[in-house]
Amino acid sequence: MHLEYLRVEQLAAPIGLWTSRPRFSWQLPAGSTGHVQSAYELVIHDREGAVWTTGRVESADSVLVEVPGFEARSRTAYSWRVRVWAEGSPDPTGWAESTFETSILDPAEWEAHWVEPEQESVRPDGAQNFAELFSLRIDTPPGERLLPTPYVRQRFELDGVPVRARVYATAHGIYQAELNGHPLGDEVFAPGVETYGASLSFQTYDATSAVRVGPNVFGIVLSDGWYAGRVGILGSSRGYGDRLRAYWQLHVETEDGRTHVFSSDGSARSSTRGPIRYADLAVGEGYDARIAWTGWSTAGFDDGDWSPVTVAHPEQRLVPFEGEPVRRVLELPAVEILRTPAHEIVVDFGQVIAGRVRFRVEGERGQEVSLQHSEVLDHDGNFFMNILGPNKDQTDVYTLAGTPGGEVWEPTFTFHGFRYVRLTGFPDDLDESDFTAIVTGSDLRVTGSFRCSDDRLNRLHENAVWSQRGNFLSIPTDCPQRERYGWTGDLQIFAPTAATNMAVGPFLSRWLRIVRDDQLPDGRIVNISPIPPQLDFLMHAPPPSYDDPILLLASSAGWGDAIAIVPQVLYERYGDRRVLADNYPAMVAWVEYQIRSATEGVAPRLAGVELSAVQRDRQQYLWNTVPHFGDWLAPSTLRGPDGSQMNAPRRTGEVVGCLFHGRTLEIVAQVAEILGHDADAERYRRRAHRVWAAFADEYIGDDGRILGDLQGPSVLALAFGAVPERLRGAVVDRLVELIHEAGDHLDTGFVSVPFLLDVLWTHGHRDLALTLLWQDTAPSWLYEVDRGATTIWEGWEAIQPDGVVTDLSFNHYAFGCVDDWMYRRLGGLQATAPGFRRSRIEPAFTSGLDDVSATIETPYGALQCEWHRRGDHVEVEVHVPSNTTSTIVLPAVTGSVVDANGHPVDPDKDGEVPLGPGSGRFTFTLETHERRNPEWHDHGKH
């Protein structure tokens, strides 16, 4: 038996590790039936020898294992090895080995200076306030108002033979670094989305193969990026500054044992006369191939006409980058070149993505071609720009050098949300092979797989994955074209699905650091993180009201609660206890703010109302004193002559605020208990009980109606346990009535839709849950799929039933949260202990499907359930990872159950069959005569 999948902080052999207290993980090999670890030994070495050994530790732990007393040094390379003993075996496995290397962990090691290249200051641009958002017209072409990108180069001499070299670099702006003409790393848009005022990440690069004896040149190209570019819904520039800067340091070890340090300083030279004439993340990029430089970052390049840089002294806290960088993660060939009814040439890539296009073109010197990007065509099949607002051009412009045989280009400092690209200036003889879509995103490993006998559910799953891929770019964003904001509410809704489909632990831990950096002194968690400087006025604005929706952008229940919900999800999915500890102070500050806010007044609807003593007493437990987004975008609140996005906040904000207050209190109490803060746990748990009692008295009628009488509040109240036993049946019955009154459609908004199907499932209405899943008229998940969706839409009717295409985003992952439900209910894969150390497998054999295969790559290995219906028999195959235990539930079986060897299996009274202990492959054949509901049975045949 050989150990596999060695990881440090959930990454394989990382360099640039951000912590001095790394944690180690390994897996026992898949298919090792019955293997359970009983002990381990872990040894860490630096290049001088053994640093630390644990000795034999009697423990089954194999995920995020801490080594007490070990503290990694700054900029140090380590190797580590581990072996384990399995239960029942006296001999250990062989040693399994891997490596890791820390980044600069000690700020005193920095010798670099911030350098400002020759440049004009970035000009004010875009809407300066919300009043200008839809009235501002920008008629000046980007090439006349955006500035050329600065290039910076710095020479240095190395007088020894290099054996190891590391570059540590960052920028105000985004950058691409080179050494002697060799690009450093393969990431894009570094350093990524940052808060700047609180901290700024720097990257670590292996430069060993690029550095050489004698003269060397370090080169870096800068672009506005998120620092100074036109970002967010306002499209305004200069969010964090108007001058781009670079900062880097190179450490080279030579054969003679010396370490040489070279860093950015006043000797660098710069120019803005390079080929990238402008570049903006949202507007696009302009490139003039006629003036392209060759070898600009090499020693032989003549920089005599370049200008000196200026040394700057900004106050900036630097931290090592945490997690996986943004990379070019996939390439998609063009599917078709369309000639539209409007006589335009449009390239269709067949999939909505976030990225850009690499293309080949041949033409005359000075000929200009442009590519404009969009997610959708209009009702007639013409190019349609669905994203509105200032500086949302999504257009790249290329000026040809006239190279015989053609030339190839891909932008460097921009990305777009698109499926379709309108071409202007290109020759008529185009071929699909000339165009390739480059998908950009944080390079997250895919960990989930779902397939079934219905192609539409498969497409729905793929849509959720593609929306995650398109929006998990440096931070989790709402959409990759219009706002690109880190909406906290969107993420907390989608976090379970995100953590199922991809390895998001370090990625979301980094984002949570940004959320903590943005937390306000009074404890509020902001709705958007990082909070754009253009919206900073909201943090100091007067209390919001439902009549001033802009002020609601500051902080809200269901959004700020991400500070508790997301760490809890990461703990449940990955067994990461540290993420709880890191975020616990922020969780406490957030719930303490809620408690204070709840006691400062009454709900706006009760202002001036004379309350009894009992009513007044319970108000202190109801967080209804400030407006909230509520069940945002609940479909029925958008319809009719009075339909408005603000209807959901007005009708549900008060109730949703109270519900999330109670839920977050319970989560923080659970976290406090895990971390050993027993007094906090008891205090918050006690208040949560009082919140639920007050909620029931204030909002739930004897007929089961909850204030507002919409599906969403009923779903949340049942999901969170806010409904007392005596009223639960009535609330469930009323929810079912509301669904039937909606024509068996969902009417849930942002914060309630993740819980809708589970609430029905666990309260005796599985058929109705499946009816909603299979529903194919709006609003529903399959309505989108039937209309050709390749990602999740922002609104259920982004394309209306009459075919009208709206200006909503067609890449918004939030409603894709149903994907997690499909894994858990249709595939049956459920974690019952952190990190899937224990699991429960309970597939829905009577779901309208004949085949389901679901796999989750857990920290311990692959957990898989695959089942096939063949007439009255169901064949089930389960794979359980090593070092875990599982139970399969075979419910309501009317016939026999046998295992792979034909031996009878006797489930207990609840249908449960223990699997293990330990890993293995298990197969069963069930005889069942259950009938499936014809209302959704036929759907499952698609």
UniProtKB/TrEMBL annotation:
<dbReference type="InterPro" id="IPR035396">
    <property type="entry name" value="Bac_rhamnosid6H"/>
</dbReference>
<feature type="domain" description="Alpha-L-rhamnosidase C-terminal">
    <location>
        <begin position="828"/>
        <end position="897"/>
    </location>
</feature>
<dbReference type="InterPro" id="IPR012341">
    <property type="entry name" value="6hp_glycosidase-like_sf"/>
</dbReference>
<keyword id="KW-0378">Hydrolase</keyword>
<feature type="domain" description="Alpha-L-rhamnosidase six-hairpin glycosidase">
    <location>
        <begin position="447"/>
        <end position="825"/>
    </location>
</feature>
<feature type="domain" description="Alpha-L-rhamnosidase concanavalin-like">
    <location>
        <begin position="339"/>
        <end position="439"/>
    </location>
</feature>
<dbReference type="InterPro" id="IPR008902">
    <property type="entry name" value="Rhamnosid_concanavalin"/>
</dbReference>
<dbReference type="Pfam" id="PF08531">
    <property type="entry name" value="Bac_rhamnosid_N"/>
</dbReference>
<dbReference type="InterPro" id="IPR008928">
    <property type="entry name" value="6-hairpin_glycosidase_sf"/>
</dbReference>
<dbReference type="Pfam" id="PF17390">
    <property type="entry name" value="Bac_rhamnosid_C"/>
</dbReference>
<dbReference type="InterPro" id="IPR013783">
    <property type="entry name" value="Ig-like_fold"/>
</dbReference>
<dbReference type="InterPro" id="IPR035398">
    <property type="entry name" value="Bac_rhamnosid_C"/>
</dbReference>
<dbReference type="Pfam" id="PF05592">
    <property type="entry name" value="Bac_rhamnosid"/>
</dbReference>
<feature type="domain" description="Bacterial alpha-L-rhamnosidase N-terminal">
    <location>
        <begin position="163"/>
        <end position="329"/>
    </location>
</feature>
<dbReference type="GO" id="GO:0005975">
    <property type="term" value="P:carbohydrate metabolic process"/>
</dbReference>
<dbReference type="GO" id="GO:0030596">
    <property type="term" value="F:alpha-L-rhamnosidase activity"/>
</dbReference>
<dbReference type="InterPro" id="IPR013737">
    <property type="entry name" value="Bac_rhamnosid_N"/>
</dbReference>
<feature type="compositionally biased region" description="Basic and acidic residues">
    <location>
        <begin position="927"/>
        <end position="942"/>
    </location>
</feature>
<feature type="region of interest" description="Disordered">
    <location>
        <begin position="903"/>
        <end position="942"/>
    </location>
</feature>
<protein>
    <recommendedName>
        <fullName>alpha-L-rhamnosidase</fullName>
        <ecNumber>3.2.1.40</ecNumber>
    </recommendedName>
</protein>
<dbReference type="Pfam" id="PF25788">
    <property type="entry name" value="Ig_Rha78A_N"/>
</dbReference>
<dbReference type="Pfam" id="PF17389">
    <property type="entry name" value="Bac_rhamnosid6H"/>
</dbReference>
<dbReference type="InterPro" id="IPR016007">
    <property type="entry name" value="Alpha_rhamnosid"/>
</dbReference>
